[in-house]
Structure prediction request, 192 residues.
Amino acid sequence: MIFKKIAQIIILLFICNISNADSLSIFGGKSMDSNLIDFPKKAAEGNLDVERYKIIALAYQQSTKPPSIFNKLNTNIEYIYARHSPDHVNETALAYNVTSPSFNILSTNVRLGVSVGLSYVYGEPTFEDGTKNEPNKKYRLLNYNAYEISLLDDNEQSSIFLRIHHRSGVYGLIAPEHVGSNFITAGFRYYF
Prediction:
């Protein structure tokens, strides 16, 4: 199957390129029963439904030259390997990451980031929503998005961050609407 081969290539890239990393991260968290669009409102209301599914992930980023429209931003290629439990399935993701320059809020260096790419899950992704017509059908290859806020140390050598790890069908482009999952995670990143 072509998607399995793509996922294997992502793993191979991850292993071969780890020495070229500009940063390494580890993050983990829990799944939420919420559509991404509803997440900000539910978070503001304190009404997030956290589920039993967990994720732990290792990621690294390699710097890329930003296109001219992003000339003041930082851009990276991000490789992610994640383990989902309790179902013990693996996920690989390859994404284009854009981050803001650091700025200061209340004496803390802050950086915002967003990632867009593809994600592939090995095995049966049991925690993701199916469609109303086919609630038990699951999709391994989905779009990957991440939304992140990082708090950096004074030297900007490391950071702690909060990230939404999102997989979806892109409103029917890759999979039917309302297929996907969201994890709210926290992590640590070290910059080389």
